[in-house]
Amino acid sequence: MAVQEPMQMALPVTLPDDETFTSYFGGENSLEVSHLKDAFTKLSNKFQYTYLCGLGDSGKSHLLYATCIHAQERGLSTMLLSMREVIDYGPVVLEGLENLDVLCIDDVHLVAGNDAWEKGLFNFFNRFNEPGKYLVVTADLLPDMLHINLPDLVSRLKWGTTLQIRSMSDDDKAEALVRRAHMRGLELTDECARFLLTRLSRDMRALLDVLDKLDHASMAAQRKLTIPFIKSTLKL
Q1: Tens of pLDDT, residues 36-60
Q2: Where is the Hda lid domain (predicted)?
Q3: pLDDT digit string (tens) for 132-150?
């Protein structure tokens, strides 16, 4: 019987530019980044598993993207599996993924109460649990609070290190925007960053999309980012 190859699911094209450990708002010396990077040094000895818990604006998805990029840089096979995107396909998408070195699963709380997915994830844990493998999972709540029906899956989700990530404050988001702009070679003042936060959605992904638009507009017009220029570009 032929071994099934893992489903090919490409990472978003923007990730190599901005979804890295360096651009994480907590910085490379934060507890979360330090732990995720340190786990790579222990793969030869045992299976590594991390559970990241936080609400939608905590930056946990960013950490997953950064983990995948870090794995690629180390020559490891990796994949990001967004439950929001694959849940309707069923647990068949997990078949063959045990051949990867690193797997990141985002928003696992979405499968709570789905018996097929719960059983599929439990079986995958058992297949993936071996030295040289690294699994990182995110959810909005702690495993015991997810209303998962399968006790064995709850037990598996509690296997490794659990990191609770606080939601980003407006100060965090302003700092993240300034940091991200600087990485692009773009000067964004704290005043401009806070203007964006007061006039636009506070969703971090939406704010970064706006920053991308401003970056292109600034280059095309050969203008610095000022509040009047931002107002004109975004028609605010």
Answers
A1: 999 999 888 889 999 999 877 778 8
A2: 170-234
A3: 999 999 999 999 999 999 9
